[in-house]
Write a structure and sequence with these properties.
Strand 1 and strand 2 form a beta hairpin. It is built from 17 helices and 13 strands. The protein is of the alpha+beta class. The longest helix has 73 residues. Strands 7, 9, 10, 11, 12 and 13 form a six-stranded mixed beta sheet that branches. Strands 2-1-5-4-3 form a five-stranded antiparallel beta sheet. The chain has a two-stranded antiparallel ribbon with strand order 6-8. Helix 4 runs antiparallel to helix 5 and helix 5 crosses helix 7. The chain has four domains: 178 residues, no CATH class; 113 residues, Beta-Lactamase (2-Layer Sandwich), CATH 3.30.450; 72 residues, Helix Hairpins (Orthogonal Bundle); 165 residues, Histidine kinase-like ATPase, C-terminal domain (Heat Shock Protein 90).
Length: 591
Amino acid sequence: MSLAVLDRPGAEPVPRRLPDARRRQIAVDGPVPSALGFAAGAALLLLGLVPVVDGTLTYAGLAVALVATGAPWLARRSTSAVAALGLPAVQLGGVAALHAGTASASMLFLLAGPLWALATYRGRAGVAVAVAGTEAVLLMPFLAGGAVAPAPGTLVLGPLVVAVGSLAVSETQRRLRAQRADIVRLHGEQAALLEQVRSRADELDTASRILAARAQTMTSVIDAVTQQSIIGTDRDGTIRVWNPGAERMLGLLRPDVVRKRSILDFHQPEELAAAAEATGAPTPLAALVHVAREAGSDVRDWTYVAADGTERTVSVAVTPRSDDRGVHAGWNFVGTDMTETRATERMKDQFVSLISHELRTPLSSILGYLELVMDDEDQPLTDEQRQYLSTVERNAQRLLRLVGDLLFTAQVESGRFTLQPADVDLAAVVRAAEETARVSASTAGVEIVVDVPADGLVVSGDAVRLGQACDNLVSNAVKFTPGGGQVRLTLRQAWQAEDGMVVDDERPGTAPVALLSVADTGMGIPAGEQGELFTRFFRSSTARRNAVPGVGLGLTITKAITTAHGGSLDLVSAEGEGTTFTMTLPLTPAA
């Protein structure tokens, strides 16, 4: 990757050389100048280039100076204040003895080493020792009795020059030390920053590899889907993702589509225009993603137009797509070809509707003739004949109700289901449902308990359809409750918030509703099957296992009626403990 240039450079050369540089600096500021100077002085004495007036004093001073010079080397360059100030002071003493023993001003050059060591000492104490030592060196010949007193100007000017020079050197050394400290600190910070950069580079490299692996995995997953089309677009609808399922469904290869075509190219313009008009969207793309933009996702049927002009009914799931920063980057369209499925459903509905109509006519005729035969006073029936014909009539009525249910579900599926609204007293509807189910409940040994308001509870709706829904709930509860059980019908007024929560007391933002609950102590419904309970012709495993009669249309019809009235139908059930269905309907303003 591009960050490979940061990959593990060698150890930092400058910080590792700093100790060596520091040792050299200490040597230059310390014993090296003095050692060189005293070595030169010893050479001059040995060569006789400098006269010796007092040998004892001369050689004693040289010995003292050399010992003081060698002591730092033997002590491994001690940096204590005593050594840093004391040894140059002792060296000055040796120089003073040499000056007095030779009575030669040429020995004053030996002051350079000690004075330099004192001038480079951290602090002003080294300057004071240097000035005092210089004064002592100048006075030593006089004090030793071997020379006249030096001129006052010399005693003043010499120490003054030393003081000024030492102060200048001290200040320069202070600045140099500060600069060296800054350099060391900066090198340390540089090393830390380099380490951080390397660490971040490693993290970025790892993250890049993870992202690349995830992208590869996602691409593999998308490419593995061949039965559904997966199409990804940018915010303008230009296609960026086109999987093999899309190639198979729409007849175009990926290179011919990606970055070249829009998702709108594969939709019916008339369908998009109708959607835009219905939603008020300004563009066809906005109409296509309108619900997904508002709700976060949308699943509905759209008509896809393939490359050869073939039209397919496709169930498309639309979701927004974000980039790695979480910014909206476009849309995902996952489509499942439902052409054959929808055609089969239409054929099934047409078949159900056709068969229902065809059955209703002969059944009505059968029931009509049965009524004529059973009520014919001129030719009365025997008790046995009447019993047989009563069985025929009962089963014919049962078939007629089943045909009616089939017709009703066909009307719901085709959108031809209508209501005839009026004010309906739900309490009267509940009592009528109890009366209808009373005989069958008594035969099965099931107790029905009714709890409704004495003054009634009025809703706006279709009395026949609401009665049908209530009858279905009560008859189901009786059928699925074994002998000795109980079915309780409860009707009460409550208040419902916008989020669907129902409370007993009126609160701000709530609307009055009627709650009709039908609770039984029967078989219950397995949790895994409750989501399919309102599907046409679905029968739970408990119903099949206990051979409870039915075709699985009652709850579908009840759900459709409740929804058509602007209400909701909920259930709470536990297998072996019973079931409670709760129908929630909005109350009329008058109520």
